[in-house]
Amino acid sequence: MRTTLDTPADFELGSAVCSHGFFVLSPNRWDSAGRALTTVITLDDDTAVRVTVRAVGQTALRIASPASLPANQRAAVRRAVIRMLRLDEDLGSFHALCERHPSHQAAARMRFGRLLRSATLFEDCVKVICTCNVAWRQTVGMIERIVATWGVPTPDGLPRGFPTPALLAAVPSDELKRVARVGYRADFIHRLATEVATGGLDLAAFESFAGDSDELHHRLCRIRGIGPYAAANLAMLLGRYDRLAVDTELVRFFRERHPRLNPTPARIQAYYRRWHPYEFLAYWYELWQGYVARHGPADT
DNA sequence: TTCCAGGGGTAGA
DNA sequence: TCTACCCATGGA
Questions:
Q1: Distance (Å) from CA A26 to C1' C12?
Q2: What DSSP character marks residue A21?
Q3: SS3 A66
Q4: Residue A49 confidence class, pLDDT cut points 50, 70, 90
């Protein structure tokens, strides 16, 4: 299967994929030499499709899959890629704001901010839960084991797509803990999967939620295992950037930059208020800039 | 052994 | 609303 997608004028594949850590989480893989994102799109409990996404010129992407797909599955794959790469999101206002700040003008020039997300909000939720109170390396391992053990196989076997809510709901919490070694997060993941699979939790409602960000944050925090940090991360993944995900990394970063300010969550949030409603993106660019200065571009 | 990492839930004040 | 404590895991 081969299909193409038009991209916004401000889109660059490597920048979109590698500006957020999710690109190293299974089933995603970034080929820096070939400038290609390989991933597996789960279509249902029994069907997953391995796809490779490459840029074609400046204004399009080509999605290639070894499998031949019927029209409905091809459309589902296209929707998933659009969601992952935020092809339907307009960041023009953020870039215009960056133009007015010397510290962030480079962010505007490189069209920074299209941060990679998952094919589904469910997958995003599980991944965010697995970033809580754990080293990033362990997060990578947890997600790898979840996908490898309960993921949906592609026609050629491996790799697998992220398991559906129903598939994860069928896994007892203690098995999740023992096999995926997710620790106490097992109960959160099992409960989330069960509530989504049985219809008790409607994640689609979050995708289309049009209310204010405080209400979105409040609703996200009602999900077990989702607190202020995880909710801010999920809001960012849903395209709301006005709340910072305050974690040890942000506190360390803020303390380095502003050694005389006591970095409480409220003070950090207040500091970035000048970027409203793009506080998260403004901070994330600063963090990303520091990373690139130390390690070189993340997409190589 | 102890601490801590891209925190969250709960009880008690 | 705030604080203290507990929660698995694994590396330092």
A1: 26
A2: G
A3: coil
A4: very high
**Is A220 (CB) below 7 Å from strand B?**
no
Q: Which residues contact A208 (CB under 8 A, 6 or more apart)?
A: none
Q: Please check whether strand B approaches the CB of A249 to within 7 Å.
A: yes
Cβ of A9 less than 7 A from strand B: no
The gap between the terminal CA atoms of chain A, to the nearest Å, is 27
Mind listing the domains of chain A with CATH numbers? 2-91 (3.30.310.20)
pLDDT for A201-215, tens place per residue?
A: 999 999 999 999 999
Cα–Cα distance, A260 to A140 (Å, whole number): 35
The nucleotides of chain C lying under 7 Å from a protein CB are 7-11
Query: A142-163 burial, b if ≥16 CB within 10 A, otherwise e?
Result: bbbbbbeebbbebeeeebbbbb
Residue nearest to nucleotide C10 (CA to C1'): A138
Residues in contact with strand C, defined as Cβ under 7 Å from any of its atoms: A 133-135, 137-138, 141, 177-178, 181-184
Residue A207 (CA) to nucleotide C3 (C1'), in angstroms, measures: 35
Distance CA A196, CA A116 (A): 23
Closest nucleotide to residue A184 (Cα to C1')? Answer: C8
Residue A300 confidence (pLDDT) above 80: no
Q: How far is A286 from A130, CA to CA, in rounded Å?
A: 24
Contact A29, A38 (CB under 8 A): yes
The Å distance, CA of A134 to C1' of B1, is 20
Residue A29: φ, ψ to 5°: -150, 135
| Identity of the residue numbered A170 | A
For the segment A104-118, the average pLDDT, to the nearest whole number, is 94
